[in-house]
Design brief:
Blueprint (H helix, E strand, L loop, with lengths): L4 H9 L12 H4 L6 E3 L2 E3 L12 H4 L2 E3 L2 E2 L13 E5 L15 E5 L8 E8 L5 E12 L3 E13 L5 E16 L2 E16 L2 E5 L20 E18 L2 E25 L4 E9 L2 E18 L2 E18 L3 E9 L17 E18 L2 E17 L5 E18 L4 E12 L18 E13 L5 E16 L5 E21 L2 E15 L1 H4 L13 E10 L6 E10 L2 E2 L7 E2 L2 E14 L2 E10 L7 E3 L5 E3 L4 E9 L1
Parallel strand pairs: 3-6, 12-14
Antiparallel strand pairs: 1-2, 1-5, 3-4, 5-6, 7-8, 7-35, 8-9, 9-10, 10-11, 11-13, 13-14, 14-15, 14-16, 15-18, 16-17, 17-19, 19-20, 20-21, 21-22, 22-23, 23-24, 24-25, 25-26, 26-27, 27-28, 28-31, 29-30, 31-32, 32-35, 33-34
Amino acid sequence: MRIAYAAMAAALLAGPAWAQRADDNAVKSAEDAFGTSVGTENIGLYRPVEVRGFSAIDAGNVRLDGLYFDRQTDLAALIAPSQTMRVGISAQGYPLPAPTGIVDYELVRVGDKRVISVLGSYGPFDGYLGEVNAKLPLVEGKLGLALGASYQKFAFEYGNSERDLSLSIAAQWRPTDRIEIIPFYDRYEATSSEAVPLIFVSGAHLPPKFKRGRFFGQDWTDNENVGTNYGVVTTAGLGHGWTFKGGLFRSVFAADRGFADLYLNTDQAGIADHIIIADPKQRFASTSGEARLSYAFAEGPRRHTIHLIGRGRDQDRRFGGSDVADFGRAQVGEVVRLPEPTFTFGPLTHDKVSQWTGALAYQGRWDRLEVSGGLQRTRYRKTVTEPGGAEHKGRDDAWLPNVAVALKATERLAFYAGYTKGLEEGGVAPDNAVNKDTAPPAIRTKQVDAGFRYALTPQVKLVAGVFDVRKPYYNLDQASVFRELGEERHKGVEMSLSGEVAKGLNLVAGAVLMRPRVVGEEVDAGRIGKIPAAQVKRLVVIGADYQLPFAERVSVNATVINLSKRETSSANNVQIPGRTTLDLGARYRFQVGEAPATLRVQVFNVFNKNGFRTNGSGVFTPLAQRRVQVTLAADF
C-alpha cells in the first residue's frame, strides 16, 4: 500500500510563512529550550556556535531547509527568518544527524497574502536598525516575491561600532501543485568595523577590569568585508510515493581589509605587548548542495521512508600574507592614538577542500516505535598550497553510520536514543596563533545520546537526556601553534521545559550539566590540563513571557542566564568566575490603521554585571554592560 500523494505533497511543500516582524517572539515560538531564533530574537541553551560545548558552525553542520549548506558567511534574517538547534529528540527526524548538532535555517516562504513589514530600533548603546521587507504574491498560488533591505549600525560594549547594509530577494514559484522552486540571493556589506582589542594574559591571573564603553582601539583599524549567499531549493512530488528535494548554494565571504588588535602577555597591572596584525584581501568561498530522492510506502499500520542522498562541497580559502606592527608596551584600557604604519603584505596561502558524500537512510514508524538509520560514504580531499608553491595534502575516506530509535510508551511519554559518527571541520586557528587562520583537516567525531520527552499538559513539554560527544582536541600548544593536543570528551545531562504553563504565561527553561575533559599524551605529560578551555560545567537559561490579564495589549518578559566558572586556558591555572545575568523587557501591541504593530523595550544585564568572557584561544573580552534597546515593528 502506498501513502496517498496529497498528504506527502502537503508535508513537502508546506513551509514557514515569511515572518511578520510585529509577531516576532522567540519564547512563544520555541518548541523546546535547546535554541530558537526568530528575527532578531533568540532563546535557549544552545546557539550555532555553542552546542554541547562545540560549534555546529565550525563543524560544518548547517542546513538550509533541511539541506546541506557549507556556510561561509551569515544568512540574512530576511532570507532565513528563523533557525532551530536540532539536538537530542529534535534531531530524530533528520535522515542524517550530526554529532555536534545541526543548525537548521528555515528558508523564506512568501505565502498568499501581501505583507509589507517595517522595523526600526535604537540601541543597544548608540546603535540603530532600519529594515523594510515585503512578501508580494504575484500569481495566486503560483508565484510570489520576497524583497528586503536593512541598514544597521551595530554598537558594542567596547565603544566600537560597525555599519551593515543588507539586500535580499527570494521567489517562490509553484509551476504545478507538485513542484516548488525557491531561488534566493542576499548580500551584506560591512564597513567601519573597528577592530576590538583582544587581551591575552601572561600568567595565572585575569586581566584588570577597565572602563567599558570607552574604545581604546585605533580608528584606522576598520575591517571591511562583503558576504554573499545565493542558491535555489527545489521540491517535487514525483508520484507513487516518490519525492525529490534538492538545493545548490554558493556562499562567499570577502574581506577587503582586516585587522587584529592584540594585547599580549598582559600582566596583573594591565601592561601588555601591543601589536596589530593587518591582513590583505582574503576570500573564503564554497559551492555546496544536496540532492535527496525519497520513497515512502505503508504496510498496514507500518510506514517506511527510504532516502537516497548525495551531497558535496567545493571550498576555496585564500588567506595569510599578514604584516605585524609592534607598538611596544601599552596599558590595557588606556586611550592612545597611534599613527597608522605602512604595512607590507606577502603572498596568500591557498586552502582547497573537496568533499563528496553518498548516503542511504531509512525512517520507519511501526505503531509506537520509530526507527531510523543511515550509512554515509564520504570522500574528503584537502590541498594547502603555501606561498612559494609547497603543497600539503590530506585525505580521508570514511564510512559514517547513524542509528536512532524512539518509543512512544504512552500518549504523553516517549523515549529516544541515538548513535552518530561524523566527519566534521575542526575550526580555524585564532588570531594569536603562529599559524593564524589555518584550518586543520576534517576530524572524525562521534556521539551517543538518550533521553525522554513527557507532555505534562498538551501545551507543556519536558525533555531530559544524556549525551557523550567525542572529537579531537585542537588548541594552542606551548609554542602557540594551533594543532591537535588530544581527544575532547563532553559528557552531560540536558533538560528542557517549555510551553504555556499558565494562561498567558509562556516559559522556556533549560539546563545543561556537563563534564568536559581532554585526554591524551599532552595531558599525561602535564603540558596541558584535563579541562578544555572556556567550557562551562553548568548553564541554565530561563525565559518567560507573560501577557497581562488586565492589559491584553501588554506583555512583559524576563530572561535569566546562569553560567558556572570556566578555565581560561588549556593550562588550567586560572578561571573566570561564574555569573548570573538578568534581562527584562515589555511589549505593547497596537494598530496603525489596520496594520498590527508592536513596540518593544528591552533592558539587558539589568544589574550591570561586570567581568570577562573567553573562548578556547584564551582571549579576554569584557562582558557587555547594562544597555537598552527600543524596537518598533509593523506589518502593513
